[in-house]
Amino acid sequence: MELFSLIESYPLETLLGVLSSLALGYLLRISFSQRQRLNSINQTIISAFTPELNRLTENQDKVIDVMDDTAYRKHEASIRDNLERLPFIQRYRLRKAWERLAYGENKEQGKFLCYEQYADCYSISENKKLRNLAIHRINSILKICA
Known about the structure:
6 helices, rod-shaped, mainly alpha, 0% strand, single chain, 146 residues
C-alpha cells in the first residue's frame, strides 16, 4: 500500500526511475553480448597462432619449417577475416603487429614475400635470433587479443 501511495505522489520520478532501470539493463545486456563476440573473435585469432608458437618454443625445428607458407596463409586468413569486426584501437594495434610479423620492420623492402625475414639460415645463432624474433612478434599479437 505504501508503495502505491509513493507512486501516486511522485509519478514522474517513478517513471524516470523505471526507465533508467530498463536503460541500464539494456546497456548491460548489449555490453555482455559485445564482450562475448569480441572474446570469440580473439579466441579465433589466438587459436590460429598458437600451434606455431608452441612449435617454436618447444621444438628445435628451423624457423623456416615452422613459419612456412601454410602457416602464413592460416595466420593471414585469421587476421583478414576478423580484423574489421574489432574495435578501432585493437584493430589498429593488431594490424601493426601483424605487419611486423609478416613483413618485418624494414619499410623500404615493401611488402613482398610473406615471412621472408624467417628465411632459412645456415647459422645456428642466426636461427636462434630469428626464432626469438618470431616468438616475440607472435606474442605481441596474442597480447593484443588476450
